[in-house]
Design goal:
With about 425 residues, this protein is α/β, with parallel strands linked by helices. About 40% of the residues lie in helices and about 20% in strands. Helix 2 packs antiparallel against helix 3 and helix 4 packs across helix 11. Bound molecules: 2-phosphoglycolic acid (PGA) and zinc ion.
């Protein structure tokens, strides 16, 4: 049992220079911990409500002063001196206090800050590591570390839309450790930098998550370049390093069509297009291959390609247990992208994890495009035994905070990497 003595929040800046929220939770035992909340740009419609001030004279309306105040006043007053047996106990109190379906009253950013800071403070109080605390929270044993999916190239909303799709990621498959996965990725990144300089005659400019973002002529050219970068680094594409694609197709779906390059594709044509990519390239994961409300066609996509690839739902599922349940019933996906701020508390995200596992889905624990220097995500991906962790490029400190934490967890636990699929 833990008793909250104080909750304080602060408005800080994320990796895009936009405000976000940081919460400190102090328990009666004296244990105290701080956690920061990330923020997306290519967000799903069904995500929990991120409370922003809306004052256009300050941070273009993106201020988080109201969310900060909610923690410092309403939430602190309601939870202070109250004994909580568990994370679920605390999160249920937060959900009840907000009282809305999408956390609109107090803000999912405010709620998640409290949820995370409480988890970390409890880990300190119990004298366990945060990853161990997360594992205990969901009743899992630590047997492996997640494999990495690392952003190489960016397009879409993270890169000014020079191509429609959002990310091409490398997935080190022959690497046996996190350490080697990062070394292999560095070699591919260096060959991609060289390729961009010779082919596009530009310096390697970076997008929101640190991915390289030259003016690819098309989506196919973007994926071709990734394969070439892998080969030029001396690896076998598909054998040593596979690819994952975040299609993020909700963001180019309009008037019942997928606007990919010059083409306007119907859903069946889009599925065929994805099929040709899987035939042509060593892609092991397709994220948001179809738009977030195209339910019927997600079932067709999973039936067509689900044996060859992860059919991974990000905006489609929004880490929302109701959407995951429906998708499982309709066989509309086979993998969950888990982002805790899409749903707003750790307990609800844990429910999403359990539902995915009950349906034998793969799980990818993911960062957001707007991140902070906090590293709790690496502990979460380890503790919740994710199959993969997705954090962005190996450039930019907000990404490296997570990779470097995972390196420390690897050194400490000596756990092997999750077996390749
Ligand atoms: P977001 O993008 O954090 O901007 O939503 C990440 C992703 O789509 O996976
Ligand atoms: Zn995505």
């Amino acid at each position: 049992m833990s008793v909250i003595d104080a909750l304080t929040a602060l408005e800080i800046l994320d990796s895009r220079g936009r405000p976000t929220i940081q919460v400190t939770c102090t328990l009666a035992s004296g244990a105290s911990a701080t956690a920061s909340v990330p923020s997306g740009a290519s967000t799903g419609q069904a995500e929990a409500w991120e409370l922003r001030d809306g004052d256009m004279m300050r941070f273009a309306g993106l201020g988080c002063q109201q969310a900060v105040q909610n923690v410092n006043t309403v939430i602190c007053a309601a939870l202070k001196q109250h004994p909580f047996d568990s994370q679920a106990d605390l999160d249920e109190a937060l959900i009840a206090l907000d009282g809305t379906a999408n956390k609109q009253r107090l803000g999912a950013n405010a709620l998640l800050g409290v949820s995370l800071a409480f988890a970390r403070a409890q880990a300190y109080e119990q004298g366990v590591t945060l990853y161990q605390h997360f594992a205990t929270m969901v009743g899992l044993e630590l047997t492996y570390l997640p494999r990495l999916t690392i952003n190489l190239f960016s397009g879409g909303k993270h890169a000014g839309g020079q191509v429609a799709i959002q990310d091409v990621l490398v997935v080190p498959t022959s690497a046996l450790t996190i350490k080697d996965s990062l070394a292999h990725t560095y070699a591919v990144l260096q060959s991609a930098v060289g390729l961009i300089e010779t082919k596009y005659h530009t310096r390697p400019l970076k997008a929101d998550e640190g991915g390289l973002a030259p003016a690819f002529a098309s989506e196919d050219a973007m994926i071709d370049d990734a394969v070439q970068a892998i080969q030029q680094a001396g690896f076998q594409a598909g054998e040593d390093i596979a690819l994952a694609v975040d299609v993020a197709s909700s963001h180019f779906y309009q008037d019942d069509h997928y606007h990919l390059g010059q083409q306007a594709l119907t859903a069946p044509q889009m599925i065929d297009h994805l099929k040709t990519w899987l035939a042509k390239y060593p892609i092991m994961s397709l994220e948001d291959g179809l738009a977030e409300e195209d339910w019927m066609n997600w079932t067709k996509l999973t039936a067509a390609l689900g044996r060859q690839s992860l059919i991974l739902g990000d905006d489609f599922l929004c880490t929302n247990p109701e959407r995951i349940q429906r998708a499982a019933e309709q066989k509309a996906a086979n993998a969950l992208l888990l982002k805790v701020n899409q749903i707003g508390t750790l307990t609800e995200a844990a429910r999403a994890l359990k539902l995915a596992r009950d349906n034998h889905w793969q799980v990818v624990v993911s960062a957001r495009s707007g991140e902070t220097e906090d590293n709790w995500l690496a502990d979460l991906a380890t503790g919740w035994q994710a199959d993969f962790m997705k954090v962005g490029s190996i450039q930019q400190s907000e990404r490296l905070a997570k990779y470097n934490r995972l390196l420390a967890i690897e050194a400490e636990t000596k756990l092997p990497l999750r077996q390749p699929l």
